[in-house]
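Quick illustration for those who missed Monday's session on complexes.
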Amino acid sequence: MSTIPTEYQKGNFRLKNHAVMAPMTRSRAIGNIPNDLMATYYAQRAGAGLIVTEGTSPAPEGLGYARIPGIFSEEQTEAWKKVTSAVHEKNSKIFLQIMHTGRIGHGNNLPEGVSVVGVSDVKAAGQMWTDQGGMLEHPQPVALSESEVEEVIDQYVNAAENAIKAGFDGVELHGANGYLLEQFLNPHVNTRTDKFGGSIEKRAKAVLDIAEKIAASIGKEKVGIRFSPNNTYNDMTAYPDEEVRETYGYLAQKLNEIGITYLHIAQNPDIKKETFDAIRSNFDGTIILCNGLTPASAEEALHAGFADLVAFGTSFLGSPDLIKRIETGAELNALDFDTFYTPGPIGYIDYPIL
Ligand SMILES: Cc1cc2nc3c(=O)[nH]c(=O)nc-3n(C[C@H](O)[C@H](O)[C@H](O)COP(=O)(O)O)c2cc1C
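Prediction with flavin mononucleotide bound:
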């Protein structure tokens, strides 16, 4: 008997099963506005107990990638309603992932007159796709002043409030994979000397302020956050394991005090057992584990003591009816990597369903 398809409950957090659809940017939001195609895509995958949407920007500056959605304007907020109602009709829950790309961006992808901003002016190595010029280098970001960080915090709160207006069950803060919130946490990228930089506590301050204010505004039970300890993607320079353990142990402890519903951990082989232990021992709420899980390894993870829920990214992308396939032991569809980020329905809503 597999646990994945069975109901889940911890505290007031109830899901129809133990499987989460991981957040995935799909670049179908032309003009940064959600649309009918996106509603169809998410409804197809509503077998998941919880869907976490693609990264969605709380501000014009955070729209670093081509064709990603926003949640800062009234038009965007209104348009998200077709997604949330399509998913709710299929009896699943849906959290909006709030993602500010920070220094991972390009001016071509941002609205006119808007600049790429960063926690510091440390430029990210690497390139990104722009529809106008193909692959281009990340620019040197404009460092946010202290008062501008406070404005960004307010933008997150506003985004979360908009998400609730749009019908989402909650929000997931994207604190992983090298975007703005992880840029605050990383000692090599965050070179600030004000209250948002320096010690572990100061580097965690923006993240915790955002979580606390959002919890106060929309309710702590509607807040989750995603982390990726030891992540080096998006030019996040590695730092000592001991400091990683302390950073995420501290975050888990403070987020537990705030009382948010879940931590979502994007795992990688470099994360030490001590770091997993520091997170689990400091956090009483739900922990979601993601990255590289197969139906079999996910089932094992649910019984290993760390994870309460398991998340699947590419498996849900390619197999909309993943839960049914887990239940029946059916094979998963092959993935078409070329259409992960291309506009339009191909490779998006046309994966075969059993
Ligand atoms: C096309 C694609 C887009 C992604 N976009 C996001 C994103 O917007 N936010 C995020 O936190 N992770 C994003 N991820 C990472 C996934 O959430 C997940 O961590 C990753 O796919 C590994 O899990 P998997 O092995 O189950 O696919 C993305 C992954 C893929 C494949």
